Amino acid sequence: MAATESGPGMLYVTMQPQAGLSLDQFHEWYNNEHGPTRLRIPAIFTNGLRYSAIDGKQPHFLAAYDVTDMAHLETPTYLELRANRSPREADTIGQVDVDRSFLDLVYAQQSPNFVPIEQRTDTDAEGLVLVTVEASLKKGVEGAADAVVKWYEEEHIPMLTKVPGWLRSRVFRTPSTIEGTSTGDTKIVTLHDYAKINGMGGPEHQATMATARYDEMYDKYISGRYLRKHQLFYVFGPAPRELQALANLPASAAFTAADGRTSTTSGSDGAAVLTSYVTTPDGLAIPYRLEGNPSPTAPTVAFSNSLLTSLHMWDPLVALLKAARPDLRILRYDTRGRHAIPTPPVPATLDMLADDLATLLGALRITALHALVGVSMGGATTLKFALKYPDLVNRFVACDFNVASSAANTAGWKERIALAETEGGMQTLAAATVERWFHPHTMGEKKEVVEWMTGMVAGNEVEGFKYSCQALWDYDLREEMKSCKVPGLLVVGEGDAKGALVRAMDGFKGLVGGEGAELRLVKLAGHLPMCEAPAEFWEEVKAFL
Questions:
Q1: What does the angle CA 441 – CA 443 – CA 445 come to, to the nearest 5 degrees?
Q2: Interior angle at CA 359, CA 487 and CA 480, nearest 5
Q3: How many domains does the chain divide into?
Q4: Percent of the chain whose pLDDT exceeds 70
Q5: In the chain, is it the N or the C terminus that has fewer CB atoms within a 10 Å radius of its CB?
């Protein structure tokens, strides 16, 4: 059927893992691969919700995806997604009894206080109840579907609205218009959302099934009724985040997607690691790495890297953090420009960089960070994020940065761009940059650190550097930072810019939040103290974190 004759609906999937399939394998695959892949197509799927049965029946699991237009499920975008399954997905789904249904939305009514589940926090959404009723229609009875739908609209759902805890009711019809009538008998499927504490079974609910019209529907039109009760237990986002099941799997369960952009390392005791990406509103893929405490409720510390580095600049510090604070979940990501730039190219700004992090947190359904730590451009990003999104972070550590740019700094960045565009390219810039960044002690006594960082800087693309460094050309946070509501700590390597940055940060520390922030110095370190002297850096920040 043509797209113009279709409309919104639902992909409705029930699943029962077969005996022998590990539930951790089932959940890790579904939460880290299957679901997020679909949520990365917002033009088709607006959400993805997983439920588990609370009625003791099988199949035990239900997944419901709201579809913007059912015709999209006939397009190559969706069909190729199903056809190009990974070997891991094929193996896992082969051990699951699956029943998929396409449902056309016919009618919906919701409470004035209803909030879409995907817009709730995980804590707020936990335990929401879903009742599904599948009504089979009597064969050969003309107008049965229309009569049942009309009853739902005019009587049954209006009565359900009086049940305590009722949130929403939706009426669907299957087979979908995209399937045609030859695929099976018409059924009316209703989905009813309730709060965790509700009045199901109470007098208001009993009254909905004690009317003359209710009896008429079952006498004339409905041949059978199949009711199920489920409870919400997982909400998909476009970025995988399932560490708990991953931590329970053996090392052999590690997975890498065909495109190489998503991979997992399984295992307990902090070994579980998930790397993937999130797409920003302007189309950039931002890689991230999630590890540490596998609990979805663990407090999360995020790290924002400096210009020209990658998320791996935090490797030495993260190793210390995982050992010292196993209670923390750890999130790292690559700043825009490391891998790609928008098309057409757009210079980065601190607002963009703060928005990128907000997008990442939203995709991972992280409501607020325990802490955000950033250095250099990441330090400026950290402060900007705390100013722009104070509800998304509880504290911050901003390192080796300035609160305002200058004409001299802008000229310096232009010179570095010119150097990067010479024949030696990023390799030439990398050697000069690391020598400028690092303390003489690091340059002389820690050759392996120098080589590691030089390689990391050289791995940048010239165009990415050219446009991302412009975030540091023209900004001034001096007035704005006075209104900062988030507690902060400032840290700087004692030799950064031969001590000039120490003096600069000492000069503006008193402006943070009006009451000021403490400034801590890391000895024998320059611009990247967490790389040059990770143990000493940790000593300066651990009490604050």
A1: 60
A2: 40
A3: 2
A4: 98
A5: N
CA separation for the pair 320, 247 (Å, rounded):
20
Sheet with 300-304, side-by-side order of all strands: 255-256, 263-265, 273-279, 285-292, 329-333, 300-304, 371-375, 396-399, 488-493, 518-522
Q: For the chain, first and last CA: distance in Å?
A: 58
Cβ atoms of residues 127 and 164 within 8 Å: no
- To the nearest whole number, what is the mean pLDDT of the chain? 95
State how far Cα 256 lies from the chain centre: 18
What is the length of the chain? 545
pLDDT band at residue 545 under the 50/70/90 scheme: very high
Angle CA 346–347–351, to nearest 5: 105
Residue 247 forms part of a structural domain: no
Q: 170-196 pLDDT, tens per residue?
A: 999 999 999 976 557 899 999 999 999
pLDDT digits (tens, 9 = 90+) for 300-314: 999 999 999 999 999
Q: What is the dihedral of CA 91, 94, 95, 99, to 10 degrees?
A: 140
Query: Of the candidates 111, 244, 231, 212, which has an alpha carbon nearest to the alpha carbon of residue 168?
Result: 111
- Return the DSSP state at 251: G
Write a three-state SS string for 85-107.
Answer: CCHHHHHHHCCEEEEEEEEEEEE
CATH code for the domain of 406: 3.40.50.1820
Same domain, 288 and 214: no
Query: Where residue 292 falls among pLDDT bands split at 50, 70, 90?
Result: very high
Token pair of 50 as six digits: 């997983």
In this predicted structure, what is the pLDDT of residue 339? 85
Q: Which of 235, 266, 291 is the last residue of a domain?
A: 235
User: Which residue in 336, 241, 330, 334 sits closest to 281, CA to CA?
Assistant: 336
**What is the chain's alpha carbon radius of gyration, rounded to the nearest angstrom?**
28
Range of lowest pLDDT (197-206, 236-245, 403-412): 403-412
User: Which runs of E-coded beta strand occur in 346-440?
Assistant: 371-375, 396-399
Q: Which two tokens stand for residue 475?
A: 């900004």
DSSP assignment string, 317-366: HHHHHHHH-TT-EEEEEPPTTSS---SS-----HHHHHHHHHHHHHHTT-
Does a structural domain hold residue 390?
yes
Query: What average pLDDT does range 261-272 have in this prediction?
Result: 94
pLDDT band at 59 (very low <50, low <70, confident <90, very high): very high
Alpha-carbon distance of 397 to 382, in angstroms, equals 8
Domain of residue 117: give its range. Answer: 3-235
To the question of pTM greater than 0.90 for the whole model, the response is yes
Token pair of 130 as six digits: 């879903």
